[in-house]
Amino acid sequence: MKTTPEHDAKIANMTFASVYPHYITKVERKGRTKEELHQVITWLTGFDDKKLQELIDEKATFEAFFSQATLNPNAHLVTGVICGYRVEEIENPLTKQVRYLDKLVDELAKGRKMEKILRQA
């Protein structure tokens, strides 16, 4: 699925710190915890809580955030529609990675079991 260059640039320049509070609100409103959110983020990126806080404090863009991440080898198993885009069809690698994260947060908020969210091959 094609995204526009403007859309990709907007996502790349958005800061993780600006979106993170929304992730917390979304999962907590549905009865999940910040710890579970961190577990999902850690699974996708390899970041521990300390590194995550550093990236928030420095207001890292999603481009900087994912350039420092070690993407989970099973991240490609994250599929489905998020924000009107089918994740597996997104061509821009950074946009795809951000949408992986959005999809995982969405699944957490919808009450999906953690073992299903943290995909195993």
Overview of this protein structure:
The protein is mainly α and 121 residues long. It has a single domain, classed as Helicase, Ruva Protein, domain 3, CATH 1.10.8.290. It is 59% helix and 3% strand. The protein has helices at 5-13, 16-29, 34-45, 49-57, 62-67, 93-109, 114-117, and strands spanning 81-82, 85-86. It has a two-stranded antiparallel ribbon. The model has no long low-confidence stretch (mean pLDDT 95). Pfam families: DUF2200 (PF09966). This is DUF2200 domain-containing protein. It comes from Pontibacter populi. InterPro entries: SP1917_dom_sf, UCP033199.
Major beta-sheet overview: 2 strands, antiparallel
Strand content: under 5%
Instruction: State the end-to-end CA separation.
Output: 24 Å
Summarize the amount of helix as a percent range: 55-70%
Sequence stretches where pLDDT stays below 50 over 5 or more residues: none
Q: What class do helices, strands and sheet pairing give?
A: mainly alpha
CATH fold-type name: Helicase, Ruva Protein, domain 3
**SSE series:** HHHHHEEHH
